[in-house]
Automatic annotation (TrEMBL):
Pfam family, one: Cation_ATPase_C
Subcellular location: Cell membrane
Bilayer topology annotation: Multi-pass membrane protein
GO cellular component: plasma membrane
Molecular function terms, GO-annotated: nucleotide binding; P-type sodium:potassium-exchanging transporter activity
Protein name as it appears in the record: Cation-transporting P-type ATPase C-terminal domain-containing protein
Domain of life assignment: Eukaryota
Alphabetical list of PANTHER family matching this protein: SODIUM/POTASSIUM-TRANSPORTING ATPASE SUBUNIT ALPHA, SODIUM_POTASSIUM-TRANSPORTING ATPASE SUBUNIT ALPHA
Amino acid sequence: MVVAHMWFDNGIVEVDVSENQALMKGAPERIIERCSTIYIDGEDLEMNDYWRTAFEHAYLELGNVGERVLGFCDLRLPGKEYPYGYSFDTDEVNFPITNLRFLGLMGMIDPPKASVPDVIMKCRSAGIKVIMVTGDHPITSKAIARTVGIISKGSETAEDIAERLDISLELVDSNNAKACVIHGNDLRAKSPAEIDALLRDYPEIVFARTSPQQKAIIVEACQRQGDIVTMIGNSVHDLPALQQADVGIVIAWGITTILCIEFMNIMGAISLAYEKVETDIMKRRPRDPKHDRLVNKRPALITSSLIGIIQVATGLFAYFLIIIENGFSPSHLFDLRKSWESKDVNNSYGQEWVRISPFI
């Protein structure tokens, strides 16, 4: 029978056997670390350098074609120490999780939709930088990124350059690499300043084997660059990054569903849903939130200077035109207050000007 159900399993199958058996599946590099033997042709052999090398080659071969790879291992548990009905605890583990027997690898094909490359191309034509953040292995992530165009044709990572020139990775000039694939372990060791430099230096970036917290860190780093960040997620593990991003897009896919409980966000989403479609919006670069505001220096300058001057000039012209039609030149208006109350006023042409009261 299966003795424990870990969080990443999706089912429990009970088999009538005389002894318990611990089964484990997950990231192959994590699985192989816990194994001391390997199951080959019905025999348990010692896990030595030969089999580890064979494991690496098989892992690379499956990952390079974009397959998601899982590793499997097991361990027969002695019936005396772990009898039927033994209470197994997966929080405070009370059964062996090392010295396991490696069973093999399985590659799963989850091809991206055919429309994804076109979407990536449209985003780039609109000036949008697309970054891939995934929990897959770096090899698989890079293969998928090349398939959909996140790593464009002709772009190389430092590892690709080292392989092409047959040199060590330390000898590669990082300035020659236009793309990079960052493992979650490497990301954990980087400071915020190093992450910022990474985002500035590489136009094409893939983050692999990332945790939910690291996804939020990546979003925050992009925002420090002054960018408006949109995060696409499909599970509850993406919630930290979705909440941190300026725009969060949730895909209803899988066994978990994300619910929005913030009323103001829902109102904004409804407003966007009913907004008329702009056919050329993906041909325009996103606005700069620091400079391209509704009212900034440029429209304010145009309004106060150009349009303001025209309005002032038009108003003064109309004023002086009415004054001249009534017999007064503009020069006559200066110091006019002294004679304003006089009953005997001559206009600019020497004619007597008579005030007509509207009350008479």
